[in-house]
Structure formats: C-alpha cells, structure tokens
Write a structure and sequence with these properties.
Helices cover about 0% and strands about 50% of the residues. The protein has about 220 residues and is mainly beta. The strands form 5 sheets. Strands 8, 10, 13, 16 and 19 form a 5-stranded antiparallel sheet that branches. It has a 5-stranded antiparallel sheet with strand order 9-11-18-14-15, with no helix packed on it. It has a 4-stranded antiparallel sheet with strand order 4-3-6-7, with no helix packed on it.
Length: about 220
C-alpha cells in the first residue's frame, strides 16, 4: 500500500486592514482596505453598510477593485474577502466625523402631513405638490448617525416659494427641529438652520411644500 502526502493546502483566510480619511468632514469619506493573501490569492472583495456576517456576502455587498471605496455616512461598514481556496474573512470599521453632506436628489419618498405614521411609497419624481412633502436621503442613505447641534441646510430647486423642512428619525417621523419660511425671490434656493437636541440614528430630512404651486427639489446640503 502506498501513501500520498498532500501539501500546500491553503487553509489561511485573507487578511484585511481598514483605515478611513482622518480629519475629513465632507461626505463621502474614503475607506482604504488593504487586503492580502500570500497563498492562493484574493478572488473576491466586497463591502457593505452595517455589521454583516460572511454569509451575507454570498449574494449581497458591493464588489470593489483596488484598495478604496467611499462611505457616505457615519456608520459601521463591513469588508469581506475570499481567496481562491474559498477561505473567507470579514472586518468592520466605524466611519465617524462626517458633518457635511450634499445629496443630488433623483428619487424621494412622499410624506403626507397630519397623518401618523406617514405613508412612504416609492415615487420616481421629486415634484412636491402643494401641502405634500418629500424625504431625503433615500433608503440607501437613511442610515448612520448625525450628531446633536444646529445644522445649516441649503436646498436647491425650482418654485421654492414656501418650503418647510425638518429632521426625521429612523421611524420617519419629525423630531425636535423644524424650520419654515419664504425663499428668495428667485425661488431656486432656500436656506435654514435646524437644531436637533440629541444624536439621530437612521436619519433623514423631510420637506413640505407650503406654497400654492408645485415645486421641485434637486439638491440639498447639510453642514455645520
């Protein structure tokens, strides 16, 4: 009887080292992921919002090439790597320090005033009919945290004759902090200061059109 010695089996998972831009307050932040595997080599690398397990990435997550990806909010991100032998590894990083967001709005969610809870069906337009509102960011952005404090909000669009806005939390309800007023005569921009009294998790901003005609919101900037 002869025996066969099998060697060079890769049983070692890839290594992952993560770092974020320090001192950067503008969204998005760049995350650097240094992934290596000295045996069979890396075959897959993905990332996702939230604290995820390796199984999650079997059919989820965003594939990235190179060593960087962008995160748009203060939130935990998980990085996943798999080598050519099938060994897997994950590592998380908590993004922090973002205090300046700009969102180009393509799709929002309408909110109806004087109803609790608000209905939130998906729409494909950011046109606000009179007395109706739209929430931003989209579900892909309604995550992470925004610290307590006074925030500057600048809205760009058309027909902004009278706009109200305020922060919403993860339940998509108004929280402390609300501003309303009449825009400039150009009706293309609106600015306000809104104060929130505690850190919000899974946050967003809700607009309500208080004018007599439709308006369109195309961009919002939120910053300290």
């Amino acid at each position: 009887m002869s025996t066969l010695n099998i060697t060079n089996i890769d049983k070692t998972a890839p290594t992952i080292a993560l770092a974020q831009d320090t001192g950067v307050v503008t969204s998005p932040k760049t995350v650097t992921a240094t992934i290596s595997d000295d045996e069979s080599g890396v075959s897959v690398q993905k990332w996702a919002y939230g604290s995820q397990t390796a199984d999650y990435f079997a059919s989820n997550g965003t594939t990235f090439t190179g060593s960087t990806f962008s995160c748009e909010n203060n939130i935990v991100c998980t990085v996943y790597a798999k080598d050519n032998a099938g060994n897997e590894a994950i590592k998380t990083i908590t993004i922090s320090g973002i205090t300046d967001w700009t969102f180009n709005i393509a799709v929002g969610y309408p909110g109806y005033i004087n109803q609790t809870p608000y209905p939130w069906p998906t729409i494909t337009s950011t046109i606000l009919n009179p007395q109706y509102g739209v929430a931003v960011p989209k579900d892909t952005f309604i995550m992470g945290t925004i610290p307590a404090g006074t925030w500057n909000i600048i809205v760009t669009g058309t027909g902004l004759t009278k706009l109200s806005l305020g922060f919403i939390d993860g339940t998509k309800h108004w929280v402390t902090g609300y501003a309303s007023g009449v825009t400039s005569s150009s009706s293309t921009s609106y600015s306000a200061k809104v104060t929130i009294t505690s850190t919000l998790t899974n946050w967003g901003v809700l607009f309500v059109n208080g004018g007599t005609a439709n308006c369109t919101v195309t961009k919002i900037r939120i910053y300290k």
